[in-house]
Amino acid sequence: MTGFGRAEDVFEGKKITIDIKSLNSKSFDLNIKIPLRYKEKEFEIRKILNDRLIRGKVDCYINIENLEETNDVKINKGLIDSYINELRNIASDGPDFEYLKMAVRLPDAITSRPDELSEGEWEALAKIVNTAIDRFEEFRKTEGKILHEELERNIQNIDKYLNEVIPFEEERIVAVRERYQKTLKEFENVDETRFYQEMAYFTEKLDISEEKVRLTQHLKYYKEVMDNEDFNGKKLGFISQEIGREINTLGSKANHAQIQKLVVMMKDDLEKIKEQTLNVL
Length: 281
Known about the structure:
By secondary structure, the chain is of the alpha+beta class. It has helices at residues 42-53, 77-90, 96-103, 119-184, 192-206, 209-228, 233-253, 257-277, and strands spanning 3-11, 14-23, 28-33, 56-66, 73-75, 110-112. It is built from eight helices and six strands. The chain is elongated. The mean pLDDT is 84.
């Protein structure tokens, strides 16, 4: 959801510049700074941004610069004269320039008279907003391609580590059985039937077949959603949580040093996936 876009144009002697930038967020959170001249159109601008950006902590800065001299200032001479006369009545011994300095600071002595926002200027402003969003989305798409490659690589890594677990599955069961048999030789009158029952029970507890199947399915589903669905960030986040559950269960059942190492590597790639998924719209 991170991105940046800038657009600017000139309309009737006014240079309008718009900057849009965004960080990750679970929802759409907009902070907008807009000149007083365009305040009446703030709702419309917010709606344009909301409809097109969807999610993210967005900052939008709109700046206006007059390129031509304007005469938007009005000096209310009659009012200033009235202020001066009233001030002179209060204190008649002051110099005239002091009365003038005080009078021009009083309410409505000097006012600005900006012209009303025309429909043409609003259309120009809306066009600049959309151009800035277009460039923002181009930034997102470029970043998205890189992000897609990284996520795909992490998913492939987890799948590779999962396949590397297979050679150690039988090995760990054999090692456990041999260790138990060696220990039992130290005892007399061992019930072999009970021993093999316990071994069968223990082997069943260590079985990771279901975890491997579910983890493989989750990895496949993650890739399908990533490749085929739009606005899939939240969904990918949920799938990554399910991937994490299966990896954790795999680790708790591992009972083998090499499998534990592979689980740690899976977790490392999963953390990268979770962090990167936050940046998916």
